Amino acid sequence: MLVLTRKKNESIHIGNNIKITILETVGDTVKIGIAAPKNIEIYRTELFQAIQAENQQAAASHKAKEMDFAKLFPPKE
């Protein structure tokens, strides 16, 4: 992990097309702005983790349905 120190209105760049700017700091809270292309998905960690968990649950459910289908119609040898 790269750790940087930035002050209000200072930025960092990631690659050629992502810019992160420190907008405000109040106590332990930091407000950041992220400028990135629209095709780059940006999520808060807690939301990203919830999406991942839901995707895994959906994949497991889909796999179970495939297994049930295979039991009903076993492949012919």
Average pLDDT level: 87
- List the total number of helices: 1
Spatial shape? elongated
Main pleated sheet: 3 strands, antiparallel
Write out key terms for the chains shown:
alpha+beta; 2 domains; 77 residues; 3-stranded antiparallel sheet; single chain
Report a brief summary of the structure.
The chain has 77 residues and is an alpha+beta fold. The chain is 36% helix and 26% strand.
What does this protein structure show overall?
The chain has 77 residues and is an alpha+beta fold. The protein has 2 domains: 1-40, no CATH class; 43-77. Helices cover 36% and strands 26% of the residues. The chain contains 1 helix and 3 strands; from the N terminus they run βββα. It has one helix at residues 45-72, and strands at 11-14, 18-26, 29-35. The chain has a 3-stranded antiparallel beta sheet with strand order 1-2-3, with no helix packed on it. A hairpin with a 2-residue loop joins β2 and β3 (29-35). The chain is elongated. The relative contact order is 0.09.
